[in-house]
Every structure is written in structure tokens, then in C-alpha cells.
Amino acid sequence: MQDFAATLPRGREPLTCCSPKPALADRPLLDVEKAAETASIFEVLANPTRLRILQEIVRSEEASPSALAQKLEMKPQAISNQIQRLADRRMLRARRNGSNVYYRVVDSCIVDLLERALCMQEDCLKRGHNGGSR
Q1: Do residues 111 and 105 make contact, with C-beta atoms less than 8 angstroms apart?
Q2: How do the domains of the chain map onto residue ranges?
Q3: Which residues 6+ apart lie within 8 Å of 121 measured at CB?
Q4: 1 by DSSP, 3-state: which?
Q5: How far apart are CA 48 and CA 78, in angstroms?
Q6: Average pLDDT of 27-43?
Q7: Half-sphere exposure (Cβ direction) of 133: Cα atoms closer than 13 Å
Q8: Has residue 11 got a pLDDT over 70?
Q9: Contact 103, 87 (CB under 8 A)
Q10: Mean pLDDT across the chain, nearest whole number?
């Protein structure tokens, strides 16, 4: 895994991640409320544009909505709408520099989750599953 603190410019705080927790198999069964809250995280991530935004922000460490719009070949307003959904879930944090706003990923657990999802997708392709509907 990458050392995120080592890649940050001087004065920038490192990405955080969850404090140590028990393994999934050692945890009690999720109650309905906790399961719904966990599902809401996946609902926010279950959007191709938001996934692309997150990946581009990780690739560039931080990005403005206009830079993201250019990179993803989308309108700035569409990007801003998706950024707001991610920011509402506290997945992104904004930094203002004059009239520009830059967003960065707050939690390295998000990066880990996206990396695992890509790994799963690639492994499914190797096994001959395309992940589409049957």
C-alpha cells in the first residue's frame, strides 16, 4: 500500500482511515440500521461518474470542478452536482485558494475500497465473468 502521508505537500494533512476494528467474521451480524447505513455508502459509490471523479482526485491528489469537468469531458455543473453528493457523505473535503475550490479524498479507506472493487472486476474478467446481467 502507498504511504499517503509521504506524498502530501508540506502542510497538508494525511488521509485518515478507520481505527483498527475486528475482522468481519468476528463482528456481530449487522442490525437493520447499520446495514442500511452501510448500503447508503455503496449507493453513493454506485455511480460511474462519481467513481471516475474519485479516481481522478486520487490520481491528482486534489482537483477543482473545472479540471474534473475537462478531464471527464463533462459540464462543470454536472461535476459539481456529483461532487456535492460525495461531499455530503464526507468522502471529499474542499480547500479554497482565492476564487478556486479544490477537492481531495478525505479517507484512505475510500481508496482501498475502490482498489478492491477494481481488483474484483479484473479477477472476474480473468475467470470469464463480465459482471453484467445474465
Answers
A1: yes
A2: 32-106
A3: 131
A4: coil
A5: 13
A6: 96
A7: 0
A8: no
A9: yes
A10: 86
Q: What is the DSSP string of 7-62?
A: HSPTTPPPPB-PPP---GGGSPPPPHHHHHHHHHHHHHH--HHHHHHHHHHHHHSS
| pLDDT of 12 strictly over 80 | no
Per-residue pLDDT tens digits for 52-107: 999 999 999 999 999 999 999 999 999 999 999 999 999 999 999 999 999 999 98
Q: Which amino acid is at 19?
A: S
User: Domain 32-106 falls in which CATH fold?
Assistant: Arc Repressor Mutant, subunit A (1.10.10)
Cα 76 to the chain's mean position, in Å? 19
Residue type at 75 in one-letter notation? K
Q: Which three cell numbers stand for residue 10?
A: 508540506
